[in-house]
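Bench notes, afternoon.
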Amino acid sequence: MIDNRLITFLTLLEEKNYTKTANKLYISQPAVTHHIKSLENEYNISLFDDSKSFKLTNAGSILYEHALRIKEGNELLLNTLANASTKTIQKISITPFSFYLLKTNSILKEFYNILLENNISINKSNDIFTDISSGRVDFGIIDNSFDSTIFDSIPIISEKICLIAKSEGIYKNKDRITREQLNQSTIIYPDSLSGIYHTVIQGLKNKNIKIKSHHIMYSNSAIIMADMVNKLDGIGFMYYSTAKELAKEGNIKIIELLNYSPIQTIYLIYNKISSHNDYLINLNYNLEEILRKNDKDII
């Protein structure tokens, strides 16, 4: 059972107001003050550098990180116990670009259909990490780095990232563009918090390609990105399988950027301290069978 004082501490940092914290927790304002003072006295520390802005001291920051872990651990325990007596559908959360990749990749469509038998939601990587840590979600499918001390993983596939352009736009007669032409275009990146975005940026950096375009936009949806590319006559960055599928509609085309072809690995992740052995064995078996039929490796 988590210490109620830590719940008060975490809630106060969210609300940044003693009265709102008291109302949210259904306790009195003096009780909120007492909980904070009690923590400071027990650990012989000051939690806040500034009581008005609620800026944390170094000790306060350390307690905050531990309190978050304790809260997530408690939620994980409660959710695991609640699910232990019921045959609940597995909850899987997936990042937007990973979702479209699995849906459009010709090899993984069967795996995608298996996943649809579960309870699927689409979220950002950071939200998926939090939900798995607390037990609100059983598995995540992400195209991002993750903390291997907290999560175990199964690599699903590695996918090339390509560029897309308007099929009847300024590059309709080109299959490859230069970095100078890239910088003359409106650029639509994947969402800046996504893993594919960081892979795109790192790939450009590795090739010493400096983006100087003054027209940069972001999208967390492959479909919306394709629409933006078409309407703005811009350049977008997308997984090849998704781009290939969307190009069939005729509005966009796949183009190359000289010497630029980054690759991103898609992972299924889960909490190290969770028990999903039977499901994981079955899921991994299905994935390996699908890839074997198509004569492909997981990586």
